[in-house]
Design brief:
This protein has 147 residues and is α+β, with helices and mostly antiparallel strands. The chain has 2 domains: 85 residues, Arc Repressor Mutant, subunit A, CATH 1.10.10.10; 49 residues, Dna Ligase, domain 1. The protein is 47% helix and 16% strand. The chain contains 6 helices and 5 strands. The strands form 2 sheets. A 3-stranded mixed β-sheet has the order 4-3-5, with no helix packed on it. A two-stranded antiparallel sheet has the order 1-2. Strand 1 and strand 2 form a beta hairpin. The chain starts with 6 loop residues before the first helix and ends with a helix. The structure holds zinc ion (2 copies). One zinc ion (ZN) binds next to loops.
Length: 147
């Protein structure tokens, strides 16, 4: 899925928000964002920890969990509950899309269906409500796992 910002622009926003909160700048926080941006996909905390270790051997899994929690809370990344080995993460600055998740192998497919998008708006309107966001996950047995 297409990215909406360059990595540099996202890191700039991160640094600004850290400055405003009076937090200490951390190289690892930026590395987590860079790993997720470059991968373009949905990574588990373990996969992220592995990739960061290349650059910084001190990055332990528990500190990666803390960094991910912070980045998700601040809206820089999105967590995706997969029902298959816990949450996976992706960069938040992507075009809107929904997910198909294989319950057997954990494969994640991104999709956009204009009709489903429209129907969700209509359902909310039917109840006199204004749709703010939605989270749509289809749990499947994928083609590979079915054959
Ligand atoms: Zn599968
Ligand atoms: Zn996605």
């Amino acid at each position: 899925m297409e990215r909406l910002e360059t990595l540099e622009a996202i890191l700039e926003r991160l640094r600004k928000s850290i400055r405003e909160k009076g937090l200490k700048n951390s190289k690892q926080r930026e590395e987590v964002l860079a790993v997720l941006y470059k991968s373009g996909t949905h990574l588990s905390p373990e996969e992220i920890a592995q990739q960061i270790k290349l650059a910084d051997r001190g990055a332990s899994l528990s500190s990666v969990y803390r960094l991910l929690a912070y980045l998700e809370q601040e809206g820089f990344i999105s967590g995706l509950k997969t029902n298959h080995g816990g949450k996976r993460y992706e960069i938040a600055s992507k075009l809107h899309h929904d997910h198909i998740i294989c319950l057997e192998c954990g494969e994640i497919i991104e999709f956009v269906d204009e009709e489903i998008e429209r129907l969700q708006l209509e359902v909310a309107q039917k109840f006199g409500a204004k749709l703010i966001s939605h989270d749509m996950r289809l749990f499947v047995k994928c083609e590979k796992c079915s054959s």
